[in-house]
Amino acid sequence: MPIGAEAYRPVKPSAELSCGDIAYLTLSRTREAGESPPGDVYDPVGRVPAYPAPATLALAHGREVALDTMFALVVTHSCEIDRQKNRGADEGHWDCRLTVAPIVSEPRVRFGAGAAAEAASWDAIATNAPVASLYLPAVADLSAIDPELPAMPWPRAFADLRGLSTVSRRMVGADRLMGLSPDYLGILQRQMVRFFVWREVARHDQVEAMVGRRILSAIPANAKGDRLAVALTADDGSSITVEWLLG
Amino acid sequence: MQTALTGLIKERGQTYASIAHRTGLQARTVRMIATGETPIDRVAVGTVRQIAAALGVTAAELIEPVLPQPGDPAVSRSDRLAHAIREVMWGTAAPGAYPSPVESSDDPLDDPLARADPADFFAGTKAIDADRG
């Protein structure tokens, strides 16, 4: 697994947009006025600390749009991005929506459970163990990736899949910094599947709940040693992952 | 929200109450400015100077840096990105609390799916909706 600058690739401003692009963007989230993700316990003011200087736009009925200006990672599949173009649609009618995940950097956040827990959290993030994050390694000098930038480091960070939102193609195109390398895109795709579909191996009660149901699909996830992980989807739409001992 | 004032108060071992005492402002007012509930650019210049004096810094040090907005045509792309990396990714204020993506106290490294190589993870999965490519 790439652990440093090899996780990234240069992206020319004129290059096609693709999954894994990292850009400086304004992200929006709608909420009732006064709602405060991720919760009072973290921020009594109602702002997300890692998302600096949010602006708000009032909506009717006590609702609002919070706008966060920050770096984000495109997670929309490249094939989906190219779809209208490949079908010959007029550029003015290409679907503008790109799904992006906000990028949270280590220098801007504290997880709040002490130095040891903080280090353990980052150790887990760095191995992409959590389903809700994609680790983004530090880069000692970004000018090696983008010669137009001054020599400056990029801190280690993670893309937070809990904060997905959509932005337009042109917004991503205007302020792209770099992209994920082909190898690391595979890790992003695996994380997306884990986040939305496959979680950890099911608990016993989840397996019990599937007894009597017809299994519609069984997809082998991976085999390690004498164990085979298989994702099962039942006829009621429920899905679990189980491990089989081989041999 | 972490502001320049929040960082300076912590850095100098002060509290909202101590700043309030030295400036004659209400502690609630200081807190609202420090947390960003009252943006610093809406605070009277005299008040900003009072707080700065109480902290022993210049008023300019309390002003949040202006962040170039994405797509701002007045700033070159490389300048926008360089400034944003410094301000957004690194920042100057103290880090803020944030919920860790690590969800449980279980050993997160014990999840076989997390260790799966993508080639193995997607092995056997058929290409779907090929005409989207």
Structural summary, described in words:
The complex is a heterodimer of chains A (247) and B (133). Chain A is globular, with a radius of gyration of 20 Å. Chain A is α+β, with helices and mostly antiparallel strands and 247 residues long. Chain A is built from five helices and 13 strands. With 133 residues, chain B is an all-alpha fold. Among the domains of chain B are: 4-62, Orthogonal Bundle (434 Repressor (Amino-terminal Domain)); 67-99, no CATH class. Chain B has helices spanning 4-11, 16-23, 27-35, 45-55, 77-90, 112-115, 118-121, and one strand at residues 96-97. Strand 6 of chain A pairs parallel with strand 1 (96-97) of chain B.
Relevant terms:
heterodimer, A: 247 residues, alpha+beta, nine-stranded antiparallel beta sheet, 5 helices, B: mainly alpha, 434 Repressor (Amino-terminal Domain), 7 helices, elongated
Write the layout of secondary structure elements.
The complex is a heterodimer of chains A (about 250) and B (about 130).
Chain A: E1 8-9, E2 21-32, E3 55-58, E4 63-74, H1 78-86, E5 98-105, E6 109-110, H2 115-126, E7 133-136, E8 157-160, E9 165-167, H3 169-174, E10 176-180, H4 182-196, H5 204-209, E11 215-224, E12 227-234, E13 239-245
Antiparallel strand pairs in A: 1-10, 2-4, 2-10, 3-4, 4-5, 5-8, 5-9, 7-8, 11-12, 12-13
Chain B: H1 4-11, H2 16-23, H3 27-35, H4 45-55, H5 77-90, E1 96-97, H6 112-115, H7 118-121
Strand-residue proportion of chain B? under 5%
**Main sheet overview of chain B:** none
What is the structural class of chain B? Answer: mainly alpha
Q: Report the end-to-end length of chain B measured between terminal Cα atoms.
A: 42 Å
Shape of chain B: elongated
Shape of chain A: globular
What are the secondary-structure elements of chain A, in order, as H or E? EEEEHEEHEEEHEHHEEE
> What share of residues of chain B is helical?
40-55%
Count up the helices of chain B: 7
Total number of helical segments of chain A? 5
CATH topology of the domain at 4-62 in chain B: 434 Repressor (Amino-terminal Domain)
CATH architecture of the domain at 4-62 in chain B: Orthogonal Bundle
